[in-house]
Amino acid sequence: MIHLRAFLSDVVIFSNVVILSYFFLANGIYTLLMLLSLRATLLQTRRWAYRGLDSLRESPLTPPVTIIIPAWNEENVIVTSVRSALMVDYPRVNVIVVDDGSTDLTLARLVESFKLLETDWTYRPSVPTAPIRAIYMNPAIPNLRVASKVRGGKPDALNTGINLCRTSYFCNLDADCLLERDALLRLMDPIVNSTVDTVVSGGTVRILNGCESQAGQVLKARLPSTLLERFQVVEYLRSFLFGRTGWHLLGGTLIVSGAFAVFHRATVLEAGGFRDDTVTEDMDMIVQLHHWAAEHDRQIRMSFSSDPVCWTECPSSLTMLGRQRRRWQLGLCQTLWKHSGILFHGKYGIVGLLSFPFHAYVEGLGSAVEFLGYLLVPLAFILGFVPPFLLVVFILLGVVYGGFLSVGAVLLEELAYHRYPRFRDLLTLLIFALFENVGYRQLILYYRFQGVLKFLFGSRRWEKVAHAGA
Amino acid sequence: MFKTADPLTELALTTLVSVLIGTFLLVAVAIFRRWQQTRYSHYLESLHTRYGLILEQLLYGTRTPQGVAALRKLPLSDLERLFDPLLSTPRDSDTHFAFLLAICTELGMVELWQRRLAAADDPLPTRPASLGSHSKLHAPAAPQRLLLRAKSIRNLGILRHHPSWPLLVKALDDPHADIQTVTLNALAAIRAPGSFRVLMERLQAVALGRRATPPLPSLQAALACFDVAFCSDLLPALRHPHRRIRFLAIELLRLIVRRETAQDPLFLLTKENLSPEITDLLLTDLYRDAIGEVRGRVAEVIAFLADPRAPTALFELCFDEQWYVRLRAVRALAHPRHNTPLLLLGIRDCLRDAQWRVREAAVHTLIALGPSGKQQLYEHFLTSDDQAMREQIVEVFERTGLMASLIEAYSQGTCGVEALVVEQIASGAAPLGLPEVLRTAVPHVRLKFTERFVHYSRFKMRLQMGAPPEAAALVARQKMLEFPPALAA
């Protein structure tokens, strides 16, 4: 009995050390990212005050861009998204919608709304894809094309879009997203004004729920009405405003949202196009590009800017939220596992030595570590290994530190972007930031843990998140 | 901070309290910032309410001594705030800029911006005493100074303040990349003759690796804003032994020409706007340059040359060994002035190119050449055995909306090659596109089209079943002319 207790004690103490190291590592790096982003975002905002977008808009060197919208059963949102993409303020822009074998009225809605005609278009694939059924267009809207194809998944739909695209750069846009008018110009700025080949440029995704929108444009940014959606607003702010900005500044970009990002077409093709062996093709592509650049000894840059904005609908029910987060976590684990050769590999620089290990430990395994923490720490308390006061202090610390980081993100939003002009919205955001770690974080952790389990059990199923339409 | 028996508890407690304090500090900063923002926007609003009308009057040329006096009493910082929206949004006409420049000069703002430029590291200068007594500005912090400098440069550029260009050229040496970029934009807006040469030197230095900044695309974009009259300064670069320099120079010339043609569709490069040396260089050496990318761009420039040697050079480029040169050459010919027998021959040859993009460009070019270009295209469509090419032509017909026009003309009884093309298309060359166009056509067009096509089909069937004497004669004529029956008729 004494031996068993000693063994249990060792296990619990070891677990607690792991949990503590995770806590300090994760929060330490998040704090660093926050501080870096704070400075960079403020400088960037100030920069727009004198640089403006006119020079970029009028420059003959601003390259044309094709917006590729993969869509599967998006009948509620597709027309609005395409309208938003067509209205974007950019000198030369084409839009390609790829209907990935929808079983609903997605294609019919597009044909009806844009008066599309089926054409005898010759499909010349650079990367193999599922067969094309038809290509539609309207000669009066020459920059819009719709391809209808046999279902092959989102990566396959994106590859179809790349095959049809004739421009050097393409922009992925999810079918439930609305672009801000100047978003593409802002997204292309790091590409046009860079001295290094910038092959990827990612932007920010914000939550559309609750906002007033009309004809594909967000008129007034407002907070959503439900608790679940409001927590997601804070979560997105934290993730995009300092998470990704910070990693970009460190040169360790590993995730760019596939909902809204520009890619260099030729480089993506050289890297083999989007793959379907993970459920997060966006992250997989970024890591694949790092691989490709290291193998071919090419100097490339992947940029992230927090000011180009696209608005997306977030899940408003627990079921949909669960589906989304399980898929994200599953995709993250699949991608990290697939490219595990990068881990601590000096050839990949910051990506191999810092960013990839961080993502593997904190974002990948972290959910399991944290989830186990919620079980083991109380167990340690019950078994008498942890004094009650220390337990309470640690729980409070976890909650408060999370709140600190979230409030930091809200502050960043307030200092730099000011998208929610009502004072009431600012206060609401601050309150939700303070309490995000009480309940909501644990819920997300539960879904993420499920995602890890799905990965361990080899599941590859894509869980569809339905969109109601804004 | 906290003394307890357990050091771990002590550390945790200290961290907890620090983080708590930090969190509330951040909350306080966020709220304070919002309050500050609201106050500032109220202040701006009041400024605009008080002085907006005076400003508008001045901008439209209505000058009142009281108005100017009221503005003169304002501190320069307030004047800048007042003028900032006018300078950051595009104005309707050059007249507005002229008035705006006059007011800014009179109120001492231009001088202030120039002084900021001249004294990069000095504290911000104060307003001259003659312009007001209460106008002292405090020296701002370093990032603020960068912002003010950058805005000053931007404003001088927007107002096209010509005398400032030497100062702006100096600002190109600023260590801050943003200042360099803003300066390039300003120089591009002012377009002072002397600055073109300076920018070209910079471009060459960056291209050859002697300098790292400003970024090459920013330099190119700035240079491309200059008029074609400045292009004589490109001559040394066009003759440069380094291929990259030659490429950048010809690319620049191409961009300038493209901008000019966008403004004036009838624009041509003549002896008046382009030096004869450059014309000669283009038509003797550069169109045969060893670098394909140079030749391709040369094609796009010589397409606008008013020189008798240009068509021959373009014709040769249509047969270049590199497909991308042929592509650029055939695209460059998409203007009715290139509708000459020689060039039509070149374009028609591109219809048989091995590269589908060249073939596609040739189809578009023939359509752009007008009726005679279309005629050539229709004839090629009718006589070609290349099924892939025929499909590609139909594809372009559908994409450009030409299919709908052809069907409408056919339903109205048009004869000749166009009718033959429609009959070929309706016989299976456009299995998807034709039904779609008919589906969306007006009922009258649909009916007439069907009537005529049914008549044609019956005739064709009779021909195939056992050619009657008149049909046999038609077939003989068709063979002679290598055209299908309707054309021969």
How would you sum up the global shape of chain A? globular
SS elements, strand count of chain B = 0
Q: Enumerate how many helices of chain A there are, as a single number.
A: 14
Q: Largest sheet of chain A, order of strands side by side?
A: 3-4-5-2-1-6-11-8-12-7
Structure explained in plain terms:
The complex is a heterodimer of chains A (470) and B (489). Chain A has 470 residues and is an alpha/beta fold. Chain A contains 14 helices and twelve strands. In chain A, the strands form two sheets. Chain A has a ten-stranded mixed beta sheet, sandwiched between helices. The longest helix of chain A has 50 residues. Chain A is globular, with a radius of gyration of 23 Å. The model of chain A has no long low-confidence stretch (mean pLDDT 89). Chain B has a domain of 120 residues. Helices cover 70% and strands 0% of the residues of chain B. The longest helix of chain B is centred in the first third of the chain and has 53 residues. Chain B is extended and about 100 Å long. The termini of chain B are far apart. The chains are: A alpha/beta (470), B mainly alpha (489). Chains A and B meet through helix 1, strand 3, helix 12 and helix 13 of A and helix 1, helix 6, helix 8, helix 10 and helix 12 of B.
